[in-house]
C-alpha cells in the first residue's frame, strides 16, 4: 500500500472585502522602479528569467511524453534554476546519467536539435528514480475527473487532483469525509498509488489604487457584484483594439476603480469543465498598455511571455490585496504543480491550472483574483499567467485579508486561447 495521508490547510476562495494587516512570512518579494509618469521602464530587483531552461524543458517534456510514455515521470527545474531534473521509471539511482537508455537517447537528441541559444549542457541535466509514469498519473487524474459525481454521491468531496512530480504520486485533495475517501478513491483508480490530502475548507474561486488611462495590470478593481478583484495583463485583438483582463468569476458587468469607470465585461471564459477562469474587460476610453504595477508607484514593462510552465520555475503573484497589505511587495515562489484540476464549491471543475504552494508564506489573499503572474526577463516582465484561486489559508488568522500560502493560476497562453486575443508586449 503506497498511498499516504497528509493534512494541509488548502482551500480556494472568492472575492472578499479588504481589511487588516499581516506580515509576510517566507516568501521572496520583488519591487520595481518608482513611476514618475506613464509609460516607461526602469531597473528592477525582480528574479531572473527562466530562459534558456524554458525552451529546453518544454522540448524535453514534449518529446519524452510522446516517445517514452512508460518511463517518463515528469521533470522539474532545479532549486537554483540552472538545471533540469528528469524523473524516470526504472532509473536505478540519482545520477547525471540516465540508466534507462531510451530516455537518455531522447534527451541527447532533443538537446542537440535545439538552437544554440536554447541549448542546455548535458551536465545541467540530472535523473532521479520514479515509480509511476506521467502517462499513468494523467490517466488516473482523468479517472478521478470522470468519477467526480460518483465520489460526490459517496460523500467524498474532491477539491483538487493532479500529478505530483516531486513526490512521485497523484495528489488527491478532499474536503471532510476522509475516513471513507481512501477506499472510494482507490476503487475509482483501481490502485492505491495516490496521496490523500485533507483540506480544511472547500475550494472556491479567489477574488493598485488610483490609476488612469492607459490602464495597466495589477490595478484594484471594484467588481460588479461588490468586493474586489485585480486587473490582469493588457490584451489586444487582431484589429488592434486593446483590453484588460481579470478572472471570469469576478462577475459580468461594469468595473470601476474608486468610483471612476474602468470598463465592462466583453467576454467571459468561466464554466464547469473550462481550462481556466478568465474574462476580457473593455477599458474607458478603450486604452490599455503593456505595463504592470509592481508596487504602489513602481511598475515594469511586459516584454515577453512564457511558452510553457514547468515545476520549479519561479513565479511572482501580483494581487492587489496582498501587495497593498505588505508594503506593496510582490511575493514569489517556485511552481510546485502543473496541469492540476480543482473543484470549486459550486461543483464546477476547472482544469489545467498551475499551482504554487509554499507553507508559511503569504502568496495571495481574497481579492487577488485576476492579478498577473510573472517573473523577470532582463529589463522587463515575463508574463506567466493569471491568478484564479487561493488556498492553504490561515484557518484562524487575523481579520481579513487572511494570508494564503497557495495559488492556482491559469497559464497565459491558455488565457490568450480562451479569449481569442494576444497579450500586449513592449518587446
Compact description:
The chain is 17% helix and 35% strand.
Mind explaining what this structure looks like?
With 427 residues, the chain is α+β, with helices and mostly antiparallel strands. It folds into 2 domains: 4-49 and 204-423, Beta Barrel (Thrombin, subunit H); 53-130. The chain is built from 7 helices and 27 strands. The chain has a 16-stranded mixed β-sheet that branches. Strands 15-16-17-14-13-27 form a 6-stranded antiparallel β-sheet, with helices on one face. A 3-stranded mixed β-sheet has the order 4-5-6. A hairpin with a 4-residue loop joins strand 7 and strand 8. The radius of gyration is 21 Å and the shape is globular.
Strands, helices and their partners?
Elements: E1 4-7, E2 28-30, E3 33-34, H1 53-67, E4 72-77, E5 84-89, H2 101-113, E6 125-130, H3 134-146, H4 148-153, E7 157-164, E8 169-175, H5 178-189, E9 194-199, E10 215-217, E11 220-222, E12 228-230, E13 235-236, E14 242-246, E15 254-257, E16 260-269, E17 278-281, E18 288-293, E19 298-305, E20 314-317, H6 320-324, E21 330-334, E22 337-343, E23 349-357, E24 372-377, E25 380-393, E26 404-411, H7 412-419, E27 422-423
Parallel strand pairs: 1-9, 5-6, 8-9, 10-18, 19-25
Antiparallel strand pairs: 2-21, 3-19, 4-5, 7-8, 7-22, 11-12, 13-14, 13-27, 14-17, 15-16, 16-17, 18-19, 20-21, 20-24, 22-23, 23-26, 24-25, 25-26
Amino acid at each position: 500500500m503506497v498511498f499516504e495521508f497528509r493534512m494541509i490547510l488548502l482551500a480556494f476562495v472568492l472575492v472578499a472585502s479588504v481589511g487588516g494587516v499581516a506580515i509576510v512570512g517566507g516568501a521572496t518579494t520583488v519591487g520595481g522602479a518608482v513611476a514618475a509618469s506613464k509609460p516607461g521602464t526602469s531597473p528592477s530587483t525582480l528574479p531572473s528569467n527562466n530562459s534558456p531552461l524554458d525552451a529546453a524543458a518544454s522540448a524535453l517534456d514534449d518529446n519524452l511524453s510522446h516517445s517514452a510514455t512508460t518511463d517518463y515521470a515528469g521533470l522539474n527545474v532545479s532549486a537554483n534554476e540552472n538545471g533540469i531534473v528528469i524523473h524516470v521509471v526504472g532509473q536505478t539511482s540519482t545520477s547525471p546519467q540516465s540508466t534507462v537508455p531510451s530516455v537518455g537517447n531522447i534527451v541527447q537528441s532533443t538537446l542537440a536539435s535545439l538552437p544554440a541559444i536554447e541549448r542546455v549542457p548535458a551536465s545541467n541535466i540530472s535523473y532521479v528514480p520514479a515509480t509511476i509514469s506521467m502517462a499513468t498519473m494523467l490517466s488516473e487524474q482523468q479517472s478521478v475527473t470522470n468519477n467526480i459525481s460518483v465520489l460526490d454521491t459517496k460523500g467524498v468531496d474532491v477539491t483538487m487532483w493532479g500529478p505530483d512530480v516531486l513526490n512521485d504520486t497523484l495528489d488527491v485533495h478532499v474536503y471532510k469525509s476522509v475516513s471513507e475517501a481512501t477506499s472510494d478513491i482507490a476503487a475509482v483508480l483501481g490502485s492505491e498509488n495516490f496521496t490523500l490530502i485533507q483540506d480544511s475548507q472547500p475550494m472556491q474561486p479567489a477574488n493598485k489604487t488610483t490609476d488612469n488611462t492607459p490602464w495597466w495590470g495589477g490595478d484594484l478593481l471594484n467588481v460588479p457584484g461588490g468586493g474586489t478583484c485585480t486587473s490582469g495583463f493588457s490584451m489586444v485583438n487582431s484589429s488592434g483594439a486593446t483590453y484588460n483582463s481579470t478572472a471570469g468569476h469576478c462577475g459580468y458587468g461594469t468595473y470601476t476603480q474608486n468610483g471612476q469607470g474602468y470598463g465592462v465585461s466583453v467576454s467571459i471564459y468561466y464554466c464547469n469543465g473550462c481550462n481556466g477562469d478568465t474574462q476580457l474587460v473593455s477599458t474607458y476610453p478603450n486604452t490599455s498598455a503593456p505595463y504592470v504595477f509592481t508596487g504602489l508607484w513602481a511598475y515594469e514593462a511586459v516584454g515577453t511571455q512564457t511558452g510553457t510552465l514547468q515545476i520549479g520555475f519561479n513565479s511572482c503573484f501580483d494581487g492587489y490585496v496582498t501587495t497593498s497589505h505588505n508594503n506593496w511587495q510582490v511575493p514569489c515562489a517556485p511552481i510546485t504543480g502543473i496541469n492540476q484540476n480543482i473543484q470549486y464549491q459550486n461543483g464546477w471543475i476547472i482544469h489545467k491550472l498551475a499551482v504554487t504552494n509554499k507553507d508559511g508564506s503569504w502568496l495571495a489573499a481574497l481579492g487577488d483574483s485576476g492579478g498577473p503572474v510573472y517573473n523577470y526577463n532582463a529589463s522587463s516582465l515575463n508574463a506567466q499567467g493569471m491568478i484564479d484561486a487561493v488556498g492553504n489559508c490561515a484557518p484562524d488568522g487575523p481579520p481579513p485579508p487572511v494570508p494564503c500560502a497557495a495559488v492556482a493560476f491559469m497559464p497565459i497562453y491558455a488565457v490568450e486561447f480562451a479569449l481569442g486575443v494576444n497579450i500586449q508586449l513592449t518587446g
